[in-house]
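step=encode ok
step=design start
structure_in=
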């Protein structure tokens, strides 16, 4: 029985869509969409594409040929992915050209697919593209521009500063190359822009993803077009897929938790980002909890003879998933502090013009972010693997840390762009520093984080008018929007 297609992904002119409409229609509802009209001014669309509309391979071998990249062999499976090898961009281009010359129809179909090239990190001065407004609220890559996600030498990959240093990628593959069925790293959002070529996407909503797994919910289908063993995957034939043909200069938004398989119908270059922010932090935490339980179950038989069993579980979690409970806690703690800093800054800006703190859309965003983080921290309190295994964030030390100041500035600029404000300049408010001196210094548990957020909200709301005080308290404690799966 073949794959059942239940519908197509909606296509929308991005130039006619506001940021608020995108959030309400797609981000908040966790629904995919294809956006057009957003790539017209990209250098990549001019310099990386030949007059015939195919990839300009000479540009890559000439200007970026020495870069080392990961290349997947689409014909060889290795565990749950395709077998990969490292080679230079020049070597990859040579393979592509050789395969193309050997095929009389002109289609390379070499079976090799360049994936996960950290192009932005490697060539920061080369402005190949501009991230569309809809995808700018990117906490993941903003954070990784300033910190490592996981800094344990036992599980980090040596001194390779490029590997896993961000989640902004270039993909290049000939017609016939493909990516097996998967859900994105960290259960993040992703967007993928076709610089040239055409792709076929098959996507499955999160509520149906259990149909892709075996009876024990341990292994999932690798290729949905294989002859799937119904005895092993009894639910697969019940899955109803959405299909999308993505053309050149179109961008697809893939929400959290949507499994998808992708095939290049033509020679293709794409630019892909993974990202998360306050809206989908719950997806990241739920994945961590699931993977933690699997890691713990896998080594349960050595629990009685292991001196630091919980520490081993967390190290294995970081090795398998890319971060562990401690990494996630430090991440959300830094962003809670950054959002508090932004609110203090906005309060100071408002008070410089009048005695009343005027509520704004930017304040709403920062307050909502605190609400999402607080909700996650409350969930973390109830998880058995959290207690006693988290790092310490020194609040006062962070306020003088240049990396943290860059994080705050970057976060402020994101929302300034979203709300079409002037360029952002964030300085540490004297009132904020004085309030923190009274509060204390360290955040080292989910309970601490909740108390810190509550303290900051109480101090901020104390300087509001009654109506704005009620707005702030309502946003943080009552008004979280419903998230759909």
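sequence_out=
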């Amino acid at each position: 029985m073949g794959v059942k297609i239940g519908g197509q992904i909606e296509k929308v002119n991005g130039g006619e869509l506001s940021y608020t409409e995108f959030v309400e229609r797609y981000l908040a509802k966790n629904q995919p969409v294809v956006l057009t009209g957003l790539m017209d001014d990209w250098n990549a669309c001019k310099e990386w594409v030949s007059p015939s509309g195919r990839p300009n391979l000479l540009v890559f071998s000439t200007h970026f040929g020495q870069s080392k990249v990961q290349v997947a062999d689409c014909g060889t499976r290795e565990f749950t992915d395709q077998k990969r090898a490292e080679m230079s961009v020049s070597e990859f281009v040579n393979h592509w050209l050789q395969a193309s010359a050997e095929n009389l129809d002109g289609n390379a179909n070499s079976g090799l697919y360049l994936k996960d090239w950290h192009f932005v990190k490697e060539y920061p001065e080369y402005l190949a593209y501009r991230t569309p407004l809809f995808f700018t609220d990117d906490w993941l890559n903003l954070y990784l521009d300033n910190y490592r996600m996981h800094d344990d030498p036992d599980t980090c990959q040596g001194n390779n500063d490029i590997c896993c240093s961000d989640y902004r990628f270039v993909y290049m593959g000939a017609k016939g190359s493909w990516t097996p069925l998967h859900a994105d790293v960290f259960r993040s959002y992703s967007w993928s822009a076709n610089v040239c070529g055409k792709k076929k996407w098959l996507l499955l909503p999160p509520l149906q993803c259990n149909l892709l797994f075996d009876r024990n919910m341990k292994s999932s289908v690798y290729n949905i077009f294989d002859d799937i063993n119904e005895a092993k995957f009894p639910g697969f034939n019940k899955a109803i897929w959405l299909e999308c043909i993505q053309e050149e200069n179109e961008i697809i938004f893939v929400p959290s938790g949507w499994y998808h398989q992708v095939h290049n119908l033509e020679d293709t270059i794409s630019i892909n980002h993974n990202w998360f922010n306050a809206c989908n932090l719950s997806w990241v935490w739920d994945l961590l909890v699931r993977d933690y339980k699997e890691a713990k179950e896998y080594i349960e038989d050595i629990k009685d003879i292991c001196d630091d069993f919980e520490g081993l579980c967390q190290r294995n979690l970081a090795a398998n998933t890319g971060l562990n409970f401690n990494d996630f806690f430090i991440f959300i703690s830094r962003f809670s502090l950054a959002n508090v800093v932004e609110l203090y800054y906005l309060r100071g800006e408002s008070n410089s013009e009048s005695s009343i703190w005027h509520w704004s859309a930017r304040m709403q965003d920062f307050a909502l972010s605190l609400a999402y983080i607080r909700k996650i921290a409350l969930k973390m309190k109830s998880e058995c693997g959290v207690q006693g295994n988290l790092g310490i964030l020194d609040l006062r030390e962070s306020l003088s840390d240049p990396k943290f100041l860059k994080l705050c500035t970057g976060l402020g600029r994101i929302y300034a762009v979203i709300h079409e404000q002037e360029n952002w300049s964030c300085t540490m408010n004297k009132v904020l520093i004085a309030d923190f001196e009274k509060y204390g210094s360290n955040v080292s548990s989910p309970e601490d984080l909740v108390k810190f957020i509550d303290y900051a909200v109480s101090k901020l709301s104390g300087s509001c008018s009654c109506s704005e005080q009620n707005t702030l308290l309502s946003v943080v404690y009552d008004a979280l929007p419903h998230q759909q799966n």
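step=design ok
step=annotate ok -> The longest strand covers residues 68-78.
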